[in-house]
Amino acid sequence: KWTDEEIEMLRRSVKTFSEDLNKISEHIKGRTV
Fold it and tell me: For the whole model, what pTM was predicted?
């Protein structure tokens, strides 16, 4: 289960990288998106 902190990190990553899932997944290590 994702923690609130991880969800917030995902939201920030989406704002930064838009729909580039490769960059988002690099930013959030250990999780799949």
Answer: 0.61
